[in-house]
Amino acid sequence: MTAPSVNSRTAAGGEALAAFRKAPADAVVALDFDGTLAPIVEDPTEARAHPGAAPALARLAPLVGAVVIVTGRPAALAVEYGGFADVPGLQVLGQYGLERWADGELTVPEPPPGVAEARAKLPAMLEAAGAPEGVHIEDKHHALAVHTRRCAEPQVALDRLRGLVEALAERTGLHVEPGRYVLELRPPGIDKGLALRDFLASRTPSAVLYAGDDLGDLAAYAAVDALRAEGVPGLKICSGSTEVTALAEQADVVVDGPAGVVALLEELAASVS
Ligand SMILES: O=P(O)(O)OC[C@H]1O[C@H](O[C@H]2O[C@H](CO)[C@@H](O)[C@H](O)[C@H]2O)[C@H](O)[C@@H](O)[C@@H]1O
């Protein structure tokens, strides 16, 4: 067995790592996709997992109770862009938990009517507001994401469009999910914390490890905190970036982007092989 080298900077995180190593077969490893397993790129359709991600997940999956990806992406897209179809037993909770992919089967509910209304109104609203060059809409069927990464000043553009997107969300009964140079209009009543809790409902995990990089992952961090309060060891891992610092402030372990996450997954697998 390789000596464990993942270290937590908090006592609670250290307890979770010890619980993971003691009973890996009952542990749950949950991960975000963009920014955590896949490096951030300008065009969302060109995002692909780090080349070491699928091999690391495939090595870890047979050793633990479950590996699950919790993402704002449509679940099938995360599987495709990740190259994850052959990771044994992998499950993907897509669109913040609305969709589930497991054993090659996809479960997708109908989007609420507000999404169609927002789809019809958003382009004209952006044009009328004089949205800066580079703003683009990603249509995820159940949600619409307004991206500003390609703008000359992405944060300025995002701040300028926030009020417009919030007003449209109010009119259409949708929720605004902010992220890395993106504002998403998505159905209310879901988030990554609820998705994670729902996934765990039928399990008694020895430990829950969650890795994320963006604001949408804070709900999953809160779920890990709640699990800890209930006596379930939990580890919060941050895929660090200069764009979002809120997760690093709360995390037990901070690594350097997707390459750091892949190295951590390899180390976890080695520590229980
Ligand atoms: O929950 P996640 O897996 O992290 O997905 C969140 C959103 O990620 C994507 O946008 C982000 O990644 C893009 C590609 O690297 C980047 O261009 C963009 O600036 C980032 O915000 C995705 O496009 C969204 O649909 C996801 O909801």
From TrEMBL:
InterPro entries: HAD-like_sf, HAD-SF_hydro_IIB, HAD_sf, OTSB-like, Trehalose_PPase. It comes from the Bacteria. Keywords: Hydrolase, Magnesium, Metal-binding. Pfam families: Trehalose_PPase. One of its GO terms (biological process) is trehalose biosynthetic process. Pathway: Glycan biosynthesis; trehalose biosynthesis. Its cofactor is Mg(2+). Belongs to the trehalose phosphatase family. This is Trehalose 6-phosphate phosphatase.
